[in-house]
Design a protein that fits this description.
By secondary structure, this protein is an alpha+beta fold. It has helices spanning 4-18, 87-95, 149-158, 164-169, 179-189, 202-221; strands at residues 23-28, 34-37, 49-55, 58-63, 67-72, 77-81, 99-105, 108-114, 120-125, 262-266, 269-273. A hairpin with a 2-residue loop joins strand 10 and strand 11. The chain binds a DNA duplex through residues 1-3, 6, 57, 72-76, 98, 114-119, 161-163, 166, 169, 171, 178-181, 224-230, 247, 267-270.
DNA sequence: ACTAACCTGTAA
DNA sequence: TTACAGGTTAGT
């Protein structure tokens, strides 16, 4: 479900509420949402949440004692701060068969709910001040990282055969982009998703980096995109779906030239683009 | 470098 | 009943 702007929105919601709070309890309704563990969940109890960081679509909850929880929401994962909800909503969320974990802090409970169960937690006991992000093969963060035209140009030389769509979705190249924002970035840049990355010029790469920056900024400002499932930590929708130009609009008119937007499948993912405004090269 | 698989829910 | 969904990855 969530891409970088949605995960960043959740991070901003939660850091304001949970920084320096003590974790009192860590309970699981299903143990299979723990994808990896150096230690037991109970080892986190009594620890202080020092910070919440994000790299790409991963969230890292950093606790005292060098303990860390990595969270990935995949398609339908949600992190919901229970006190933000009405008492009826709180009750139904706690009883939901898709609520898999509850983190109880001194000021309230944080719930992990995931219909499809692709998402989950990884529990780390770090040594030497290393963050668990370093264990993942992730490129620079698309928002806070060193992403520019020169970097993309160097990367496209390493992966010349990838379709541009697949290239932008690859988290080892750039971390944080998903199906919505890649389509939006390619539309903004005037490049087709089915061109090969090897054909990108340095100028194209500079435009891609620029468009990425601009679109992510607006999307974060709008609190992310709620096309269907996404909700922030307060269980509320984002607003960026009102500003999407091509994603989810296959068969409708291009907002710039009026041509019919095409929808194709690349690497198993749907892509929508304008056959007039976007060029293959 | 592509596909099938992991899951469940919703819409066609 | 079938196709499809803001993601990733093991296997081919």
């Amino acid at each position: 479900m969530p891409e970088l702007p949605e995960v960043e929105t959740i991070r901003l919601n939660l850091i304001a509420i949970l920084k320096n709070q003590k974790l009192k309890g860590f309970s699981l309704n299903r143990s299979d949402i723990i994808k990896y563990a150096d230690i037991q969940p109970s080892a986190f109890e009594g620890c202080i949440l020092l910070d919440i960081k994000r790299h790409g679509k991963f969230l890292a909850f950093l606790f005292s004692g060098n303990l860390e929880i990595l969270v990935h929401l995949r398609m339908t994962g949600k992190l919901i701060w229970l006190p933000a909800l009405s008492s009826e909503e709180q009750e139904s969320l706690l009883e939901s068969r898709h609520t898999h974990a509850v983190l109880s802090f001194e000021n309230g409970k944080l719930v992990f709910n995931d219909v499809r169960r692709f998402g989950g937690f990884e529990l780390y006991q770090n040594s030497g001040g290393e963050s668990a992000f370093s264990r993942k093969k992730l490129g620079p963060d698309a928002w806070t990282g060193a992403l520019d035209g020169r970097y993309l140009f160097a990367q496209k030389k390493r992966h010349p055969g990838l379709y541009l769509k697949t290239f932008l979705l690859n988290q080892e190249i750039v971390a944080g982009l998903g199906n919505i924002y890649t389509d939006e970035i390619m539309f903004e840049t005037g490049l087709r998703p089915d061109m090969r990355a090897g054909r990108l010029s340095l100028k194209d790469c500079e435009r891609l980096a620029e468009a990425t920056r601009a679109i992510l900024e607006k999307a974060i400002e709008a609190g992310g995109t709620s096309f269907r499932d996404y909700r922030n930590a307060g269980n509320r929708r984002g607003q960026f779906q009102n500003f999407l130009r091509v994603y989810g609009r296959g068969g409708l008119a291009c907002p710039v030239c009026g041509a019919v937007l095409e929808k194709i499948t690349i690497g198993g993912r749907s892509s929508v683009f304008c056959p007039v405004c976007q060029k293959k090269k």
